[in-house]
Amino acid sequence: MSEPILEVRDLTVHFYTYAGIVKAIEDVSFDVYKGETFALVGETGCGKSVTSRAFTQLIESPGRIVKGKVIYHKEDGSTIDLLKLDEEEVRKIRGKEVAYIFQDPHASLDPLYTVGHQIAEAMVVHNTVKDWKEGFRKAVDILRRVLIPDPENRVKNYPHELSGGMKQRVVIGTGISNNPRILIADEPTTALDVTVQAQILELMNKLKREYNTTLILITHNMGVVAEMADRVAVMYAGKIAEIGSVDQIFKNPLHPYTQGLLRAVPNPLAKIERLDAIPGTVPNLIKPPKGCRFHPRCPHATEACRKEVPKLKEIEPGHFVACHLY
Fold first, then answer.
1. What is the rounded distance in angstroms from the CA atom of residue 92 to the CA atom of residue 131?
2. DSSP string, 269-321
3. Up-side HSE of residue 64: CA atoms within 13 Å toward CB?
4. Distances in whole angstroms, Cα of residue 131 to Cα of each of 8, 123, 215
5. What is the CA angle 69-72-75, rounded to 5?
6. pLDDT, tens only, 120-130
7. CA-wise closest residue to 85 among 67, 101, 100, 70
8. Domains located in the chain, CATH noted
9. 126, 189, 230, 241: which one has the fewest Cβ atoms less than 10 Å from its Cβ?
10. Per-residue pLDDT tens for 250-272?
11. What is the CB neighbour count within 10 angstroms for residue 190?
């Protein structure tokens, strides 16, 4: 295993709403290693996107980072806690060393500016180009790299003149424009049809190899995880349930939630009349269940599960699970 590039420790984010305090993520801890593709998996609302946004303090009101550390290992070997930086310092890292690809390309692009202007701007504000002229020239190269045809003319297009797949490529281009060390892709294929999804995933893999970038992939699609990831963290209701290599998670899932997720994936080769589903619903995070948050839906729940929060334990090398069964 290579050295970690990001160490997340006890990260906790709450949202202070009129209805009460939403405990969006609680005591989330994991490492991301240099050069790997690390997948953060779980159903909608489990806290994947909140976790990734917290890395660079992108939590907006009424949200607040309550506690935790995000230790970033810089290229020179030194380390910094990203949560202790002020806004000016974190802005120098956000978009340059840690970049994002957000899930909705329509919302990520400004309709009033050309796509070339928006890619160039990402480089100009971080001083990775001398001036706007060089920024526009590099924007053409980036569009070519993300496989957009006729980049010299497309660079002058506004977002509404591009298809969904092309917009997503522009967003990826903006993300890689400053050669970031960490690229966080938040459900980058959600709004796209299946054939375009495959092209986008292939493109991201290619760019990751070219730039030696560490990729954090946020998704609920287990097929994408199997295809792309080196290691996987499974989240449920704001907490980490299981962490392991992609082989460990798919061949030997330990947590009942992970097992349920994998059973719910359709197998085109199996003759089954009905898909397995996890019973019950996701808990209300204003009043989450005591003990293990999965216990109301778990077929193996015991008295300990109802009272005590399970700790993340290493069951085999690199394979961690938070479950009282182990």
1. 18
2. TS--SS-----S-PPPTTSPPSSSTTGGG-TT--HHHHHSPPP-EEEETTEEE
3. 6
4. 36, 9, 29
5. 165
6. 999 999 999 99
7. 70
8. 4-97+180-321 (3.40.50.300)
9. 230
10. 999 999 999 998 888 877 777 77
11. 14
